[in-house]
Amino acid sequence: MKAEQKILPDASSLIEAATEQFVAAARSAIAKRGVFHVALAGGSTPKGLYQKLATSPYVEQIDWARVHLFFGDERCVLPTHDDSNFKMASEAMINHVPIPAENVHRMPTEEGVAPEVAIRYGRTMLETLAEQPLDLVLLGLGPDGHIASLFPDTEALDVTDRTTTSLYVEKFESWRVTMTYPTINAARQVIVFIAGEAKAAIVKDITSDAVEGLPVQRLAPQGEYYWYMDAAAAGK
Question: pTM of this prediction?
């Protein structure tokens, strides 16, 4: 399934459009099922979205008591570490919206080795979701085509029997925990954020099929699938 491409003039327009989409997805899920399950992403563009969601009028448009936050991936660092996606999302949004603490499901990356954390988080997801798919998965796109922590040439790409898995990323010398393709693909809605001129080359490679087998190209969402890009990222 190909993504519906939404190209906005600049990063601020992209963030505003994505914020409206997030609010609409939340309100729809809550109206239909009484709850909104969303997986957050790391990165500067998602951070802008989170900051926007914590401001008026958007923050008042969501019933935060019915929102459950998950994380698509996380580095194995303390939650207070500057590299933590949880820390970024907390400072940008979570600490500024009326969401119950028990509705924020961070990856407990300080509690053990990465494989154990992945198993524990997978269990948390299954217990919370009760076999329902995520309503929304937010993803960034790396210059090497990775999404979440599904990096090229890693065993994580081929894990299909688990909700989450762990991996060691050689070039960053870091352990990660990530949601797997089946978890992401089952979501009712998937949004990939791509912003900035630095992403133009990878966007060209993906859309022209100049390169094949990149992690983002292996996405096959069963629900709605969007790419939110600014003009700089879509330039080539």
Answer: 0.96
